């Protein structure tokens, strides 16, 4: 194979294998979600589309391996096919578009490609950009490439920005204001956590046997951030406290690395898949797909990607579980959501392990404040619901109402 020196997923992007979809009974929608976070955010839309039009086919693409893992794990039984998005080159793009021939294309959050947008525009395929997010870094890059990115953005029929900041940046990049829809975030529309799901049986058993004073979940953690968690747990303020910690790596294949790192710092950590004893105090989750529901068993949460220059991950998931949330300084990708949680006393920005230890101690000693913060966060999430339905209604209008 001419591209065999590339990894398999890159090979699929350079020269996609042929797509053979079942004979169309209803509309065919192509949804593209860049990576893990984008895949998770589009679950509500996929579920709503299948609920309203069971005969609808969804062709789903991703650009990363973590995105593929998440899509295969949660969407394989709901969509017609899941593939890697083609490289933005005429050969790859035209090859896939010829096979798929979608009735509508939907881009989730980010990953705008100029040639692809020009190709679907030439084919008169309606396109929507939903949960649109333009970070400061992306904004600067798109401005430098204005001659190609401007027309790419103008190819969309409707754009649903996550926030007013994203809307302003899109307009500054040349988006036609007539296609700009009201701001909103589909992440508010995700299903509520289900702490009773069977995959959490070992977790519930462990909590029942230990009866810890405090259970918290550190979600979407990247290598290096476990040092902040370790600093907090080893702080003298928490000595003698019966705390049970669940650490969930952003990428499950890093679980062993996290376990070894925590052990090297003198902490008793083990993998969820191999719990050796009932008094384990730090459990590293080495499977995918349970984080949202695991938050439902915690009393507080730390959201990762925020103590490193990674712009943070989704604080709405733990807030939806009704528990208070802490994050580090890096929250750019969720700035408006995080700011909203902080303003109502449901989100708490921290800078290091010492401040994290102090916050845990406060919540242990003041459970009523912890409960109040959690309820405020859940209320914030619930008030933001409805974006997914508005997107569905716009999809219907593109068909002249014939799909709905």
UniProtKB/TrEMBL annotation:
Where does this protein reside within or beyond the cell?
Cell membrane
> Which pathway does the protein contribute to?
Bacterial outer membrane biogenesis; LPS core biosynthesis
Pfam families in the record:
Glycos_transf_N (PF04413)
Q: Where is the 3-deoxy-D-manno-octulosonic-acid transferase N-terminal domain?
A: 15-189
Leader sequence segment:
none
Query: Entry's Gene3D superfamilies?
Result: 3-Deoxy-D-manno-octulosonic-acid transferase, N-terminal domain (3.40.50.11720), Glycogen Phosphorylase B (3.40.50.2000)
Q: Which branch of life, at top level?
A: Bacteria
Task: Write out the catalysed reaction.
Answer: lipid IVA (E. coli) + CMP-3-deoxy-beta-D-manno-octulosonate = alpha-Kdo-(2->6)-lipid IVA (E. coli) + CMP + H(+)
Q: Does the keyword Cell membrane apply?
A: yes
User: Which UniProt keyword terms apply here?
Assistant: Cell membrane, Lipopolysaccharide biosynthesis, Membrane, Transferase
Q: In the Enzyme Commission scheme, what number(s) does this protein have?
A: 2.4.99.12
Functional description taken from the UniProt entry: Involved in lipopolysaccharide (LPS) biosynthesis. Catalyzes the transfer of 3-deoxy-D-manno-octulosonate (Kdo) residue(s) from CMP-Kdo to lipid IV(A), the tetraacyldisaccharide-1,4'-bisphosphate precursor of lipid A.
Q: Which family does it belong to?
A: Belongs to the glycosyltransferase group 1 family.
Please identify the protein, giving its name as recorded: 3-deoxy-D-manno-octulosonic acid transferase
């Amino acid at each position: 194979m001419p591209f065999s020196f590339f990894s398999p997923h890159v090979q699929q992007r350079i020269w996609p294998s042929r797509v053979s979809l079942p004979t169309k009974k209803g509309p065919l929608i192509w949804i593209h979600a860049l990576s893990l976070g984008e895949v998770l955010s589009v679950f509500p839309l996929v579920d709503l589309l299948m609920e309203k039009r069971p005969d609808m086919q969804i062709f789903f693409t991703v650009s990363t391996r973590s995105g593929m893992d998440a899509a295969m794990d949660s969407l394989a039984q709901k969509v017609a096919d899941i593939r890697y998005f083609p490289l933005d080159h005429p050969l790859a793009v035209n090859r896939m578009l010829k096979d798929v021939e979608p009735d509508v294309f939907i881009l989730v959050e980010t990953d705008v490609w100029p040639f692809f947008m020009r190709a679907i525009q030439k084919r008169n395929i309606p396109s929507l950009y939903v949960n649109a997010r333009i970070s400061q870094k992306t904004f600067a890059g798109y401005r430098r490439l204005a001659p190609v990115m401007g027309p790419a953005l103008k190819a969309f029929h409707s754009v649903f920005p996550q926030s007013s900041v994203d809307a302003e940046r899109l307009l500054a990049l040349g988006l036609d204001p007539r296609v700009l829809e009201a701001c909103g975030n589909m992440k508010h529309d995700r299903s509520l956590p289900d702490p009773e799901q069977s995959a959490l049986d070992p977790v519930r058993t462990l909590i029942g046997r230990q009866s810890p004073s405090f259970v918290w979940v550190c979600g979407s953690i990247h290598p290096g951030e476990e040092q902040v968690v370790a600093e907090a747990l080893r702080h003298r303020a928490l000595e003698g406290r019966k705390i049970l910690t669940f650490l969930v790596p952003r990428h499950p294949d890093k679980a062993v690395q996290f376990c070894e790192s925590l052990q090297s710092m003198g902490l008793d950590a083990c993998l969820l898949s191999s719990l050796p004893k009932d008094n384990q105090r730090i459990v590293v989750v080495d499977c995918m797909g349970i984080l949202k529901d695991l938050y439902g068993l915690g009393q507080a949460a730390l959201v990762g990607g925020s103590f490193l220059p990674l712009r943070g991950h989704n604080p709405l998931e733990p807030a939806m579980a009704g528990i208070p949330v802490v994050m580090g300084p890096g929250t750019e990708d969720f700035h408006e959501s995080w700011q909203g949680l902080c303003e109502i006393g449901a989100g708490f920005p921290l800078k290091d392990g010492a401040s994290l230890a102090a916050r845990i101690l406060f919540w242990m000693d003041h459970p009523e404040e912890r409960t109040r913060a959690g309820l405020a966060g859940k209320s914030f999430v619930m008030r933001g619901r409805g974006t997914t339905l508005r997107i569905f209604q716009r999809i219907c209008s593109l068909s002249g109402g014939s799909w709905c």
